[in-house]
Structures are given as structure tokens and as C-alpha cells.
Design brief:
alpha/beta, Alpha-Beta Plaits, TIM Barrel, 8-stranded mixed beta barrel, 5-stranded mixed beta sheet, elongated
Amino acid sequence: MQARDLNKADPLALEQEVERLMKASDTPFSLLMVDVGDTGQIFVRSGLDASRKVLLNIAKSLQSFCRAQDRLCRIGDDVFCILLPGVHKKGQITLAAEKIVRLHSDVIQKFDPLLHSMVRIGIVSFPQYGNDPASLIHKAGIALDSAKKTGSPYVPYSSALAQALIDQWHLKQDLADAIADKALELYYQPKFDMASRRPCGAEALLRWTSQKHGQVSPEIIVSLAAEMGLMHELSGFVFTTSLLQAAEWPGIGKQLGLSVNLEATSLQQEETLDMVAKIFSIWGNSERELTVEITEGALVADSDSNFERLKKLRSAGIGISIDDFGTGYSSLSYFRTIPATELKIDRSFIANMLESDQDRHLVEAIIWLAHRFGLTVVAEGVQNTAEINLLTEFKCDVFQGYYFSEALPQEEFCLWLSRYKTPEGFL
């Protein structure tokens, strides 16, 4: 095919080519479904003409890759398919995929060396995975979807891959039902004030134990909810439930602040931020502080816009915590403008500071710098007295970790609060 024939997506042409190859001979072949990356970035940065030119150059590079017997089809805005007769062994497929990756990188680098646009390739082989053209194309799509989700440049189709997709589909359906039925749980891990040596707050942590899938990690819950477009509903559940449950905390729990995590995708949604502010106005009270924890990486991405969004939460009386500090792309410049009230040092630095001079100096420097900008500092993952003593020497404000308590479900947390006594050594 000539590059000019690729201006229009034609999925039917691909199916016809696959069927022709299947009927023409018994020669094995491979189908490579190639997603050439987010050319929308180029459109936003440089305009329509530039994005068309880059896409045309990508199409030409794919055509230069093809041999005389190969077939190249366009089936979507950024998706091409290549049929490679005689190519079916693992080594051959790997060489072909890696060459496409290099060609794509060359085109992008010539246009803009700073642009990060990664090609993704899904691969399926005939006759190993069926004799039906539509089914073969579908399996290549499954492999491509896996490449996108895992970040791999190319993924070959396999039966295990298909089963994993089916399992994930069931998991998504069950999670959607759990969110709708409010079947998820919140656990609470206390935070301790260094000066008073008493609990000063608790962090709400999401948990889900599925009857079919067992304990599902919070990371998977959030990832799947984002894929399904359910982050707004999930955030609503977490903020409403945590504020309602915090109102039930006995004794010292009545004065504890509440910290709730807000995911990066939610930070980009104005309606979610408005919802959080509204929930706090309804279910919050003047005696309890609400702090929203946002990872450093989420803050740094599109920082100017994110800072403006966070200012709306601050104006509603909600605190802002920079979570996992030190693991993202830390920049001293954003300390000047970030509307934060708290900084949480990532547990990896706390765990290593007793053995590592570098980590110890880094923790001390972070605490000093945060205090200069008026931020409260929380040390995550505190597990022993030696860490507490060193953090106290550095004038860290708040401690959180297994030394005091693991995260507990609501009923157990209320019982823990009613029985709380200061741990020995924490005096």
C-alpha cells in the first residue's frame, strides 16, 4: 500500500487481507497491531498541519519497514496493522517489533527530541491462534491493550493473556457493584503529635475484600475505578464515609484530624473537588480538621493548574498534604506557591535513615526546609524507638507507622481509641 492510501482508516480492508492470506496458502503469518502513540500531543503543541505531517512520516516509516509481500492497513486514527507472511517464530517477531519501535522513535525525535511518544504493539500469529479473521484481529487488539496497560513496547497474544483479561473484566464488574452498593471498607491508621505524645489524627485507607477475588489492593481498586470512569463515585464514598465514621470516634477520637487520599485523576476533575468541598461543608465540623493527601508526582504534573484547584479546597477550610515526598520529581521552586499545609516524608527514607548517612541527612534537610515554609512534617512508616528518637532530634512534627498501630477497621479503631495508652518508650 502507498502512504497516501493510509489517510483513511479502513478496518474492513484489514479483515479482507487477513482472510486472503488465510486462504491463499498454508504459510504462517503474524499480525502486528501498532498504536503509534498520542499524536494529539503534537496537535495541541504544534497544530493540525504538524500532527498530520508526523502521522504521515510514521506511516511512511511503517511502509519502509514492510517487505513486498507484507500488507499495511490503517484501522484507526493512530492505529495501523501489519501482516507479515512467513514471520511466526518468537525471534523473528521480536526483531520485527523492535525495528518498528526504533523507526517510530526516529520519526518522533526528528520532530521534537523532547516529545515522549511511545509506540505500542499487539502481536498474534496464524495458525496458532485460530482461523477466523475477526477473531485473529480481536486477539491482536487484546495484546495491544495489554501493552498499553503494562507499558511494554510490544506484547504477543497468549491464552493466559486472554484469561487474565476475562478475570479483570469480572473484577471490574464486581468492583462497580461494590462501589454502587457501598461494600468497600475504610481502615484508619493514627498519626501522633511529637510535642504532646498523643494521637492527633488518622488517615483513612481504602480496603476491599471480595468474595470471589479475596483481598484486592487499593492500587488495583483505584486503577480499575479510573479505567471505568468511577473515580468520582469512589471519592464521594470515601470522603462521606470517613467523615461520618469519624463523628463516631470515642474519647480522644473526637479531637483527631482526618486525612483522606485524593488520586491524581480526581485532582483534574473540578466536579470532584467541588463535591469534596460540599461533603465537608455538610458532614464536617469546626472541631475536626480535614486534610486531603495528594502524591508529590500528581502535584508536579501540570503544577500551575493543580495549585489553582487546590486553592479552592484551601478556601473551603481543607488542608493539603504532599504525600510520598521525595519519591517524585521534587522541585524547590514549587514550595513558593504550593497551597500545602503538610508534607509527608516517604517511608523508604525513614526506613533507611539509621543505616544511611545520605537518607539521614536528606530527612533532616526536608524537615528543616518544610518548616521554613510553614509546613507540618509527617514521618511515615515509623517502626521503632530509634527512629522516633532521631526524628524527635530533627524536630519532626508528626509520626505515623506500625510502632503505634496498623490500620484498623472502624469498629476496631473505635475500640483502640477507647483503650489508648501512650506506648512505652514514647515519652
